[in-house]
Amino acid sequence: MLRPIKLAALGVLRSSGVFTLVANSGWRRRRLLILCYHGISLEDEHLWRPGLYVEPQKLEQRLECLKKGKFSILPLGEALQRLRAGNLPPRSVALTFDDGTYDFFRQAYPLLKTYGFPATVYQTTYYTALERPVFNLICSYMLWKRRGEVIADVEGLGLPGPLDLRTDASRAEIVRGLLAIANRENRTGVQRDETAEQLARVLKIDYANLKAKRILQLMNERELQEVSRSGVDIQLHTHRHRTPEDEMLFRKEIQDNRSTIQKSIATKPVHFCYPSGQYVPAFLPWLQKEQVVSATTCDAGLAERETESLLLPRFVDQQNRTQVEFESWITGVGDLLAVRRKAAQKQISSRG
């Protein structure tokens, strides 16, 4: 009930000129909007996880809106320097993409080149060298593909049968079970991929075809080098998409992540994004010890000059956000009206 009322109110504000008024204000000029995207669908990923994926057509619509609205699209590093210096241009926006999946290379990268917009990719790196689908994500995606069914024959998975695929919760429980087995047996990335292939057989899904499409795979080293040569900024997102609450393990994630990126593009990354937007206060001094100069969250908001540089807010765009919601945030109205800003802090865990 509340959402239709909110959308109607935003529509009235836009049509009455409030969006333009705020966008042109000195208040907006002193603030930076950092836009966040995750995946850009190769096929139907936006239907599987609309909170993480958008269709390429929607991304193009957003970029066209930024262009027509004469927003100043800045590289992240420059944007943060100018924010601190107090000399941002009007309507400043920085574009960020989390994870560095292949769909960025295939879908977002060509659009960014067409529009001439700079962007930052926060690259997780373990699967960059492995060149296989991310284990827990591909398992979740395949289970969703057979949603609504109950699979009796589960031979070879190590899970009790049958597999109940009728609800989100039951499918998530299956993924947790597969991850628990893989972690308990300390399986390598290759071994986990073999488990995913076994799951595909149980589900009667052509896994070789799925892998060939590069769905839920990261950019490989060659692709990273290509986008970097074209000006895409590659930054830190941990090696295994996890943030252990142990200083040594946490810093090793940063070190391994940075080392892998530097081997590919010979540039030292110093900006960081918390995987899944999850953080605790202890992370800040650990990041400082690793010479990280900024860190972005998934908390909603515009960054101000006084904002803590290791807790920068962003606006996370996604498939179910309407155009008027998007426009409210790029103009600044969304920030003024926001009630709930802090992203949900789920239990911090590995991405498999």
**Global geometry:** globular
- Largest beta-sheet details: 6 strands, parallel
Poorly predicted ranges: none
Order of helices and strands: HHHEEHEHEHEHEHHEEHHHHEHEHEEHH
Q: What's the mean pLDDT score?
A: 95
Percent helix, as a range, is: 40-55%
Rg result: 21 Å
Name the beta content range: 5-15%
Q: Helical stretch count?
A: 17
Which structural class is indicated by helix and strand composition? alpha/beta
Describe the structure.
With 352 residues, the chain is of the alpha/beta class. It has helices at residues 2-15, 18-23, 26-29, 45-48, 56-68, 76-85, 102-115, 126-130, 135-145, 168-184, 189-203, 207-212, 221-229, 247-265, 283-289, 323-331, 333-337; strands at residues 33-37, 39-40, 53-54, 72-73, 92-99, 120-123, 150-151, 163-164, 233-236, 271-273, 294-296, 315-316. The longest helix has 19 residues, at 247-265.
Draw up the topology in text:
Layout: H1 2-15, H2 18-23, H3 26-29, E1 33-37, E2 39-40, H4 45-48, E3 53-54, H5 56-68, E4 72-73, H6 76-85, E5 92-99, H7 102-115, E6 120-123, H8 126-130, H9 135-145, E7 150-151, E8 163-164, H10 168-184, H11 189-203, H12 207-212, H13 221-229, E9 233-236, H14 247-265, E10 271-273, H15 283-289, E11 294-296, E12 315-316, H16 323-331, H17 333-337
Helix pairs in contact: 5-7, 9-10, 9-11, 14-15
